């Protein structure tokens, strides 16, 4: 039985370019609301199912122990090209977090792809960590935690020997083997951090960085080492 019951339709509107008339009719969009999401999407389609998936992923992130905002803005685009431009990501991604907002592929793409649940957990983890990221949480731990929460794995075919090299690859790699290896390595490091100090301690640390910054000082307090030193030791382990 479907978990989603009440669907509130908010403020239908028709996007347009100011001062211009388009030869092609613009796609009508509307805003829909569930318990924790305000979703902007093309009118029609299985919006209820998409909101169900978002709410399910939201609960999964909360159950892991991360604090989520009370309400999350999400936008499902009318085309893959529009999604890629708005999110600043490659077209093969299903979703992307932009700060505390979620950008989504068209509903037809989302609902026929089997990995939607993991993709939403991954991006909502980034939403939960948005304040920590703004205050200095490095990408390797941000992505590693998202991989952990989503239950994702990637093969490590490329070896990274320094955290700054891993950061660079996570931020700007274009080749799939490098991207996969960077994400796989970030996941391994996050897992190792949790194994060494405990999940509760890591979650408390992430919350503290989100509230007041000071990543490097707090990381040293958590592990007894600076992040670069800790990273060199852990990157060499498999």
Secondary structure layout:
Blueprint: E1 8-13, E2 29-33, E3 37-42, H1 47-64, E4 72-76, H2 80-87, E5 95-98, E6 101-104, H3 107-112, H4 116-128, H5 130-134, H6 139-150, H7 163-172, H8 176-197, H9 199-212, H10 215-223, H11 227-235
Parallel strand pairs: 3-4, 4-6
Antiparallel strand pairs: 1-2, 2-3, 5-6
Helix pairs in contact: 1-4, 4-6, 6-8, 7-8, 8-9, 9-10
Q: Could you describe the 3D structure shown?
A:
The protein has helices spanning 47-64, 80-87, 107-112, 116-128, 130-134, 139-150, 163-172, 176-197, 199-212, 215-223, 227-235, and strands at 8-13, 29-33, 37-42, 72-76, 95-98, 101-104. The chain folds into 2 domains: 8-128, 2-Layer Sandwich (Zincin-like); 132-235, no CATH class. The chain has 238 residues and is α/β, with parallel strands linked by helices. The protein is globular. The termini are far apart. The protein has a 6-stranded mixed sheet with strand order 1-2-3-4-6-5, sandwiched between helices. Helix 7 (163-172) packs across helix 8.
Q: Into which percentage range does the β-strand content fall?
A: 5-15%
What structural class is derived from the secondary structure elements? alpha/beta
Largest sheet: 6 strands, mixed
Question: What's the order of the H and E elements?
Answer: EEEHEHEEHHHHHHHHH
- Low-confidence sequence ranges: 1-24
Shape: globular
Q: Care to count the β-strands? A: 6
Rg value = 19 Å
Count the DSSP helices.
11
Averaging pLDDT over every residue, what do you get?
A: 89
- Overall helicity: 40-55%
- CATH topology name of the largest domain, in short, is Zincin-like
Q: Structurally, how many domains make up the residues?
A: 2
Distance between the amino and carboxyl termini: 43 Å
Assign the CATH class of the largest domain: Alpha Beta
With strands numbered from the N-terminus, the spatial order across the biggest sheet is: 1-2-3-4-6-5
CATH architecture of the largest domain, by name, is: 2-Layer Sandwich
